[in-house]
Amino acid sequence: MFFMNHSNASFNQTFDWDSGATIQTIISFTTVAVNGFALGLLIQVHMHHNAPFNIYLMHLLLANIYLTLPDACRIMGYINYPGYFGSVWCRLAMYSDEIGSAMVKHAHLLISVNRIWALIFPVSYRNCHTTTVALLICASAVVCCHVVLLPLLIRDYLFYQYPESAGICDTNDVAQSVYSFSVYVICFMFPNVFMYVSYPFLCWKYRHGRRVFVHFAVSYAKSTTTSGGSRRHSERSPPSLAKDHQRGFRVLAVLTVTIFVCWTPSMVRQVLLRVCGFGFDLLQRIGDTLYAVQGILDPVLFALVLGDLRKRFTQLFKCN
User: Fold this and answer.
1) Count of Cβ atoms closer than 10 Å to residue 168 Cβ
2) What is the largest CA-CA distance in the chain?
3) Domain that residue 309 falls in
4) In this structure, what are the phi and psi dihedrals at residue 168, rounded to the nearest 5 degrees?
5) Residue 172 and residue 160: Cα distance in Å, rounded?
6) From the centroid of its chain, how far is CA 84?
7) For residue 15, what are the β-bridge partners?
8) Looking at the 3D structure of the chain, how many domains does it have?
9) Per-residue confidence of the chain (320 residues) as pLDDT tens digits?
10) Cα separation of 290 and 265, whole Å?
C-alpha cells in the first residue's frame, strides 16, 4: 500500500511523509474508530439476539481493524528512521499486511459460504450451525491463512529478503515467483472470484427457494418438539430463522457489490504484474485507496441493511 516516499540512491535514503501517507493515516484511524464502534454495537445486539451469523460480521470487523496494523508499524518506522528497513517494524508490517489482507478476504468469503450452506442445506444449517460452530469456522480460516502465508514470509526472511540498502520493505516475490503467485491465487484471488461467481446463483436460489427454507425450518421445529411442547435443541422460532436468513442475504448483496468496486482494480494490477511483468502506478494508487476505504464501508453498510444494528445505533444517540 502506498505510504511513504523513499529513494534507494544510497544507504541513507530519504524517508519523506507525503500526501498519500496523510490520506492513508486518516483512513486507518477512521477504520479503527468506525469498525470498533460497530463491533461494540454488534456485540450488544448479539447478546439480545443470539444469531450465529453475527459471529461472521464480528470476524470481518476485527479483520478490518487488524489490517490497520501495517500502517501503525510504518508510522513507528517513520519515527525511528533511519533504522526502519530491515528492522522488526518492517518485518511486522510485512507480516500483518499479508495476514491481515488474507483475513479480510476470507472473512468476506465465509459470509458467502455461510449463505450457500443456509440456502442449499437449510435443515443441516438449522441443526448444526451454532455460535460455537461459527467461532470454530472463523478460527479455522485464520489458521489456514497462516498455514499458507507463513512459509512464504519465512522463506523470504531467511533467503530472499531485500538488503537494507535497497530501501524496500516488502516480500521479494520475484525470487520465489511460482510459490508467491500460488499463494496469491489461494489467499487473495480465490475469495474474490468465488464471491463473484456464487452470488448470481445465490440470488436465483434466494428468490425461487426462500419459501423452502421456512418450510424446512417449520418441519424441523415440529420434529424437535417434545410432548410437553418444549424444544430440545433450540429456542429460536421459524420466523426468527427466516429473519436471520434475510439479514444474511442483504449483507452478502451489499458486500458483493462493494468488493467488486473496491477490490477489482488491485486484483487486475496484481495479475498484470505477476503474469505480464508490468503494472500501472495510477491503478495501484486507485486500488490501494479503494481497498483501504472498503474497511470503512463494511460497518456503514451493516448499519444500513441490518435493522437491529441500526435500531441500536438510533437508541444510543436518541435524546431523552
Assistant:
1) 17
2) 82
3) 13-224+234-252+295-313
4) -125, 125
5) 6
6) 28
7) 6
8) 1
9) 444 433 333 333 444 556 666 777 888 889 999 999 989 888 888 777 778 888 999 999 999 999 988 888 877 777 766 556 667 778 888 899 999 999 999 999 999 999 888 888 888 888 898 999 999 999 999 999 999 999 999 998 888 888 877 777 788 888 888 888 888 888 888 998 898 888 888 887 777 655 555 555 555 555 555 444 444 444 444 545 555 666 677 788 888 888 888 888 888 887 787 777 666 777 777 887 888 888 898 888 888 887 777 777 777 766 55
10) 8
Flag whether 258 is in a domain.
no
Sign of the torsion formed by the C-alpha atoms of 204, 299, 121 and 211: negative
The three cell numbers locating residue 225: 418438539
For cell 480460516, the residue is 141
CATH number at residue 65: 1.20.1070.10
Q: Which of 193, 11, 29 is nearest to 85 (CA)?
A: 11
Read off the C-alpha cell for 130: 451454532
In angstroms, rounded to a whole number, what is the distance separating the alpha carbons of residues 96 and 207? 40
Quick check: helix, strand or coil at residue 137?
A: helix
Is residue 244 a part of any domain in this protein?
yes
